[in-house]
Write a structure and sequence with these properties.
Elements lengths: L7 H10 L30 H13 L11 H10 L5 H9 L11 E2 L14 E2 L9 E3 L5 E3 H16 L5 E4 L4 H15 L1 H7 L7 H4 L2 E5 L16 H9 L5 E5 L4 H4 L4 E7 L2 H10 L4 H9 L1 H57 L24 H38 L1
Parallel strand pairs: 1-2
Antiparallel strand pairs: 3-4, 5-6, 6-8, 7-8
Helix pairs in contact: 1-2, 3-4, 4-12, 6-7, 12-13
Length: 414
């Protein structure tokens, strides 16, 4: 699929929203507890909500920045099998390997300490991995420190509203998850167990970022608690995003998260991500992750923006060269016009010189002011000469005639 060029308005928006923050950097190892999202490193970093807005603007023009060329054939196949799914959502789901099937083509969770990573049927945590920053939220229920620091104020706010929630399950180790899943397989079979319990390594509880809540204390019969009908659940659906929590397994998306509806299961993803999901109306974390947070997507976006920046820089340089050439041409034209103006001015000066400004000796006699007064001596001489010529002609004419007549008579006699 060929991507269309973004409009000038989009390029201007990119220039406006992209900012360089020296304190924002990608976590290159699990030593860092968390890092800002999107984790675009190097020359391209920006505010997360600006990043979401920019991605949506590109999508509105038909250019999906989460489109990965290497997945093009998989997109086509998935869309052919699922024609009712929107193009953008289909791309996102393929990006998280949903098309590969449950527990197929499993990848290890990258950046395990990132609070917005994805753990599901296709992404697994190592068996020996345990978060190093777990703290107690009460009654021995442990959570990652950042998640706990957001959960406890949320619980306090609910209490102020006259509501109460009780923690049933928070952190659960790999081995504890394996025991729970194996027991479910023994009691209900593999298919039922997989719909109700994650396999070991595939549980968000091992990540220390999820918590199961009920409105009655010490009630472990979660499937029968009807938590989704409680006021506590309603409050959470309206306010949990302000504290960084999302409903992880909503009822209407069972086929995509591959679990039963779990109204009690709330996942901490960070305030920025939870707020963006709420604002975008995206309830499925797989879709949001595949659209905005997947490693390959972020790399693709970064390369695209760097290319756009380079293109803009080249266009600006080209425009500057053209402006310089035009300036030189205008300067040359101005010089020519100045020379022409100078010549015209010189000619005009010559044309406006009055005759009296020219010395009489420089003018022909006929063009002087005294041209009507003739030199009398010269005039008399000219008249005398003319009269002499007339007299001479009158005197010699008869003589010449007689001479030629005599010559004629003599010739006749001979």
């Amino acid at each position: 699929m060929k991507k269309t060029k973004a409009s000038i308005a989009i390029i201007i928006l990119i220039i406006f929203i992209i900012s360089i923050h020296g304190t924002t950097a990608i976590a290159n190892s699990d030593d860092a507890l968390s890092y800002p999202v999107p984790f675009l490193s190097g020359e391209v970093q920006m505010d997360f909500l600006s990043y979401i807005a920019m991605m949506n603007i590109f999508a509105d023009t038909g250019e999906y920045l989460h489109f990965l060329n290497e997945n093009a054939a998989r997109y086509d196949a998935f869309i052919a099998d699922n024609p009712d799914i929107s193009f953008g959502k289909a791309i996102a789901l393929v990006n998280v390997n949903f098309d590969k099937g449950s527990y197929s083509n499993v990848l290890e969770v990258p950046y395990k300490y990132n609070i917005s990573h994805l753990v599901n049927h296709n992404f697994v945590l190592p068996s020996g991995w345990t978060p190093s920053d777990l703290i107690d939220t009460g009654f021995g229920h442990m959570m990652r420190e950042e998640a706990a620091e957001h959960f406890m104020p949320m619980r306090d706010s609910m209490r102020e509203a006259g509501l109460n929630v009780y923690v049933i399950i928070a952190y659960r180790s790999y081995n504890q998850q394996r025991y729970a899943h194996n027991r479910a397989v023994s009691n209900f079979g593999s298919a039922t167990a997989d719909r109700n319990w994650a396999r070991p390594g595939h549980s968000e509880h091992q990540a220390g970022l999820s918590i199961d809540l009920l409105h009655r204390p010490f009630d472990t019969s979660m499937h029968n608690a009807r938590f989704h009908e409680s006021a506590e659940f309603t409050w959470l659906t309206e306010n949990a995003h302000n504290y960084g929590f999302i409903l992880r397994y909503p009822d209407e998306y069972r086929e995509f998260h591959r679990y039963v509806f779990e109204p009690w299961h709330w996942r901490f993803v960070g305030v920025e991500v939870a707020t963006a999901m709420h604002n975008e109306g995206i309830a499925l974390f797989e879709e949001f992750y595949g659209r905005y947070l997947a490693q390959d997507v972020l790399s693709n976006v970064r390369e695209h923006l760097l290319h756009e920046q380079q293109t803009i820089a080249e266009e600006l340089a080209r425009a500057a060269e053209l402006e310089a050439a035009e300036a030189e041409e205008l300067a040359r034209i101005a010089e020519i016009e100045a020379a022409e103006a100078e010549e015209l001015a010189r000619i005009a000066e010559l044309e406006v010189i009055e005759p009296e400004q020219i010395a009489p000796e420089e003018l022909p006699a006929a063009q002087t002011e005294d041209s009507g007064d003739f030199d009398t001596d010269n005039q008399s001489m000219e008249l005398s000469t003319l009269n002499s010529l007339k007299v001479g002609a009158s005197f010699f004419a008869p003589i010449i005639c007689v001479f030629f007549g005599a010559v004629a008579v003599i010739r006749k006699k001979n």
